[in-house]
Every structure is written in C-alpha cells, then in structure tokens.
Amino acid sequence: MNDTLPADVRAQVVAYAADTLADLAESVVPPSLLAVRRFKPSRRARLGAVPLASAMENDAHFRGRVADWVRRTNPDLVAAVTAPDGPPPAAPPAQVAAIAYILRTAEWAVLVEEAARSSAQEVTSARIDAAAQEIRRLEEQIEAVRRLARAEQEQLRGQLEQARADVEEGRRRLRASADRVRRAEVTAREISLAAEAARDAALQTAREAEAEARRLRAKVADLEAAASATRRDNRESRSMDEARLRVLLDTLMAAANGVRRELSLPTTVARPADLLVRSESGGRAFDPFSGVGGRGRAEDDPTIIDDVLAVPGLHLIIDGYNVTKRGYGSLTLQAQRARLLAGLGALAGRSPDTEVTVVFDATAVLARPVGVAMPRGVRVVFSQAGELADDEIRRLVRAEPQGRPVAVVTSDREVADNCGALGARTVSSDALLSRLDR
C-alpha cells in the first residue's frame, strides 16, 4: 500500500483502521495489531501506521471488519461511493478514495488515481500561490530598496556639494596659514633645542640624585641592620642574663632553705658583727655537693644519685646514649630511649625541685627523631645537625649561672673533664643505671 496509495489516502485508511481496532474484541484482533490496540486512541494511528497499513493490505478479514465499521459510521459517503453515478464532485477525493480502497469497489483504483492527481494539483496550486506571494514580497522589497537608494543618493549628492565647499574653504585657509606654519616650525625647532638641553640637564640632575639616594638608602639600610642587630643582641643578652639571674636566685633560695632545714637554723637575720667574726675565724663557704660521692663508695652505688637529687635547685644533665648503651646496648636506639625516659620520669616525679635534661646524639640515627614522648618533669634534647651530644651538654653547662649546682651523668672521661672545668660535678652512668634498676 505504501507504493500504490498517495500519502493523504494512506493516512485516511490508517485512521479508519485505528478507529475500527478500538471497537474489536481482542480475540478477533490480528496478532500483529495486539500491541497497537494497547496504544492510546490519540496515538494509535501515528505509532501503529506501519502494522495497520500492512494489515489492510494483506489481511482480508481485518479489511472486511474495517469496511463494516465504515459502512456503519459513514453510510452517506459509502452510498455515494458505491452509487452507479459515482461520488459527487464536491466529495473529498482522499476520503472517497480511502473508502473505495477499503470496500474494494470496482472503480477503487481509478478513484485512488484521481485522489493522487487532486492531491498533486493541490500541492502544485499551493506551491504556485506560495511562489506568487514570495514574488510579491520580493517586488515590494525591491521597490523599498529603490526608494531608499534614491533617498540616499540625494543625501550623498548634498553631502558631496557640502564637502566640495568645505575643501575649497580648507584650501583657502591652508594658503592663508602657510606663513604662520613656517614661522611656527622655526619657533618649534628653537623650542625643541631648548627642551633637549633642559632634558639633558634634568637627566644629569636625576642621575646624580638617584646616585645620592642609593647611597643614602644603603647607609640607612646599614644603620637599620646595625640597629636591628644591636636590639637583637641586647634582647638575647638581656634574656640570657635574666634567665641566669632568676635560676641562680631560685637555686640560692632553695639552697638556703635546704641548709636552714638541715641545720635547724633560726630565721633571724645575722648581724654584720657576727659575719665579721665568722670570716676572721676562717669559716668556709657552703658547698652544695659536700658529702656527694664521698670516698668508700663504688661508682655504681645507687645512693650517689639519691644524694645528688637531694641538692636543692639542682640541674641534672644526662648523656643519654652513654647511659643506654652501657645498660641496654642490645636494644634498638628507639627502645633504649623509651626505657631510659620511662625510668627518669618516675625518678623526676620523686624530686619535683630538680631540673632533669636528657641529651641524645642525633648523629647516631639516620634522621632526626620527631615527636619523642617526654615524661613529666624531663626535658629531651637532641644535638644539632653536624654536632655531637657532647657539644650540646657543654653548651647547657656553660649556660647555667655561676653558683647553681649542676651534675652531669656520663662515663665519657672527656665529657666529664670538660664539664668539670666548667664547674659541674660528674656522676658515673653506672650509678644512674643501678638507681633505675632498684
């Protein structure tokens, strides 16, 4: 049917078939149209056009049911199509051809051809009308363009006349001002020479001013750097002096309180005469380490550590790896540090007045340890890059004020001698290991 029927006739046949399909029982619907029957009525003819057209072409039973439906719904048009005289001329050709095709009348092919010719004539007539309208629209546009061109031509002619008049006036003015221009050029050259001379002088002055400014800026920068260095040195010196003075004062007060408690001295202030008599009688100054590490005790005696911790205001500095390698040398460095710090934490808790610092050698490990857990009351220090723990220990001892008791726990003879020369007392690492193991 796609090749024999014009498009409008085919669309009418499919519409009749779709309307008939809605009135049929599902049992008599051809299998190819069961899915089409489930479509909405408004979409059935559009979505099911192909299967409906195929059924109308190949299924005579379905076509007969569609013919019965057409006879019931369009009796007048069916009667006109089947009349001996044929359909009236005013009848729609596409609808007449569709009914004749469905009823398969003797003249259905002729009616289809007439409908095709009528449709072609309508299409041709519509195209002719559209072409005529387009021609009229283009003619109107051409006429409008012509009118606009004439108006623009008149306008341009007037502008040309005005331009010619302006040019002539310009020529007259140009001739009149030629002398003035020449005089102005001479004056401009003179001014240019004067300006160049003034510019050279200004550039020379600017260069000299810039050189002077650079010199002054350099001098100001030097003065600022010197002032900043002086302020920084003063702050550091003042901070170090204040720290030393405060630690020394605390140490002296703690030592004085400790001596007063040990000797049960009265709280009254001594008289100058008493001090004079005491100095004449050969009295000795107080030594906070008197009695510490006395003769007759072994180097690993744990009581030496107890005596040292009893000194008021003591700063106890420990050579970390020197102690751990003597006591826990089979463990890893991390395990050695953890074990030593755990023991020192308990020891520092019993002597809250004692300042405890442990120094580890950072060069003994591949990377500087980070995030070491410090027990309460214990300070953990690693030597700086390129330095040993011995250097850090000497730096700590040297930073303490004169008069504060400082004890260094190490079995390194060189460290002990250097710290002793700086005023610190040394204690063997074996004594601390014995005290931690007790």
UniProtKB/TrEMBL annotation:
Keyword list (alphabetical) reads: Coiled coil
Record's protein name: Predicted RNA-binding protein containing a PIN domain
Alphabetized Pfam families for the sequence: NYN_YacP
Q: Using the record for this protein, list the coiled-coil segments as residue ranges, or answer none.
A: 121-233
Q: Tell me where on the tree of life, at the top rank, the source sits.
A: Bacteria
InterPro entries xrefs: YacP-like
